[in-house]
Structure to design on (520 residues):
């Protein structure tokens, strides 16, 4: 029996908070667990696989989380490969369930990045070990790392700042339809270009927001999910990959999404043309643009033209991040879990004014780390039931 | 623009030859004795063939800008005061691309493909940090 089509996302929950100075990361995870289990009609006693990653959880975070929830699962996975971790957790949970190592996997994230005033994008002075010493003297910020990619993309392909700005404008338009989104006032291309430059060529409005938040996903077998409360969302294909500086010759425009999506598409038997809605990590406008190219929705260098004319907006050929993405809805440090949640809810047809009409096939792609130095990627292909 | 006041490099036994080379004003790279692959960053074995037969050699110090960004905001002390500064990848003549800064010219004078040459901060006893300036 193949894995493809036999694993289901049964329950999801996005914590509504965007600002939670009165909550701990673990509290947000606990409340999200409650939400996702209620969503599918399971109880905490049904959970026998626990998956989590976080920015402040420490090396044994998933063990601390198990203690917080008084859980004794028979499968633990604390994989942390950056913001894509939760997309990878779905992949790992699928493998574990398929192999009989657990039956009900609970994937959790919670963070108070905003209320703790983490300067995620522009705060890095770097560590002082032998590895970090090749980076820390130079003032690399997260924004700077992505700006290196954007500058190279503009040089090789003539990509224009207006094209990057259109991505931010589209995400904000989507967020205006999402009552939970943090930034809901619509913006124009001029607003993006007139916002201050953080790291050339990226402006403030090319960068994701910083919020608090969290979420949860319940994964089980397609068979078990059949009798649960909500329509099943079936996993059709998945893949992971990593890209880094190699031995000194990084190609900044070929990213992990290339490899991870090739496997996911192959496994699923689906093609790019089949995809009705996509949830793609948008830490920065350039992240989304190069990811679209590497996922095969357009050729390398064509991303700028691809995002023009409303193609990635609601009503366009490939609606991306109807929730408003990290650029406008929420970004509590690591965002991958929300990609899975939004894609699942779109395929269940429950997204109200931001619903992609008749969405049957969804693609999720998470990026973790920084594109300019080292990063991971994880892709899922999902279908409605 | 103030000079970047940056953390001093930490050299362990795998990376010491590189940082000591910088202290002498040289870019030191590694070549595999088994497969001839040039690699950076330095490590104890060849990442291509896993051979432990690693030799060091002095590179030319010349290269060109592969990509760059003018950083206008970095809230970390030491960098905040130095904004705007140029963060870049420089592709060396020998192949490897180094994350670095371009100094010695106005930030808006930097462009991709620009020829540059290594420029070292004042050595702190044995070690120094390589940056690049227009050739």
């Amino acid at each position: 029996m193949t894995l493809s089509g036999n694993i289901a996302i049964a329950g999801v929950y996005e914590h509504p908070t965007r600002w939670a100075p009165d909550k701990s990361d673990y509290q947000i995870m606990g409340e999200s667990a409650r939400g996702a289990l209620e969503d599918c009609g399971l109880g905490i006693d049904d959970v026998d696989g626990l998956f989590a990653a976080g920015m402040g959880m420490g090396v044994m975070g998933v063990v601390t989380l198990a203690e917080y929830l008084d859980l004794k699962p028979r499968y633990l996975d604390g994989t942390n490969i950056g913001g894509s971790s939760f997309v990878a957790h779905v992949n790992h949970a699928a493998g574990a369930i398929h192999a009989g190592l657990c039956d009900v996997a609970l994937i959790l994230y919670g963070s108070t990045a905003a209320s703790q005033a983490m300067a995620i994008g522009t705060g890095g002075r770097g560590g002082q070990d032998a590895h970090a010493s090749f980076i820390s003297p130079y003032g690399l910020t997260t924004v700077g790392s992505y700006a290196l990619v954007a500058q190279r993309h503009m040089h090789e392909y003539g990509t224009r700042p207006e094209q990057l700005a259109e991505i931010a404008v589209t995400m904000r338009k989507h967020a205006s339809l999402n009552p939970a989104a943090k930034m809901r006032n619509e913006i124009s291309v001029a607003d993006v270009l007139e916002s201050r430059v953080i790291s050339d060529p990226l402006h403030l409005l090319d960068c994701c927001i910083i919020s608090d938040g969290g979420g949860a996903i319940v994964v089980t077998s397609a068979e078990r999910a059949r009798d649960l409360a909500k329509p099943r969302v079936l996993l059709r294909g998945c893949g992971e990959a990593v890209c880094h500086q190699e031995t000194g010759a990084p190609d900044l425009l070929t990213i992990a999404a290339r490899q991870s999506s090739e496997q996911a598409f192959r496994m699923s038997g689906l093609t790019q043309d089949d995809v009705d809605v996509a949830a793609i990590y948008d830490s920065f406008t350039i992240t989304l643009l190069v990811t679209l190219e590497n996922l095969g929705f357009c050729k390398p260098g064509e991303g700028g033209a691809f995002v023009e004319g409303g193609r990635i907006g609601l009503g366009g050929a490939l609606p991306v991040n109807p929730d408003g993405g990290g650029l406008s809805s929420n970004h509590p440090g690591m965002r991958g879990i929300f990609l899975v949640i939004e894609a699942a809810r779109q395929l269940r047809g429950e997204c109200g004014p931001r619903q992609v009409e008749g969405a049957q096939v969804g693609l999720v792609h998470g990026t973790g780390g920084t594109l300019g130095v080292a990063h991971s990627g994880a892709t899922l292909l999902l279908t409605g039931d | 623009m103030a000079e970047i006041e940056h953390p001093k490099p930490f050299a362990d036994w795998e990376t010491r030859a590189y940082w000591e080379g910088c202290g002498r004003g040289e870019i030191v790279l590694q070549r595999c004795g088994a497969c001839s692959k040039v690699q950076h960053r330095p490590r104890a074995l060849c990442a291509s063939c896993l051979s432990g037969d690693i030799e060091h050699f002095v590179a030319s110090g010349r290269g060109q800008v592969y990509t760059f960004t003018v950083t206008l905001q970095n809230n970390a002390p030491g960098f905040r005061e130095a904004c705007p500064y140029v963060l870049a990848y420089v592709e060396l003549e020998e192949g490897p691309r180094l994350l670095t800064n371009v100094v010695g010219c106005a930030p808006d004078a930097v462009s991709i493909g620009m020829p540059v040459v290594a420029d070292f901060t004042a050595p702190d006893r044995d070690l120094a940090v390589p940056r690049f300036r227009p050739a």
About this structure: DSSP finds twelve helices and eleven strands in chain A. Chain A touches chain B at residues 119, 122-126, 128-141, 143-144, 147-152, 155, 196-202, 245-250, 252, 373 (CB under 8 Å).
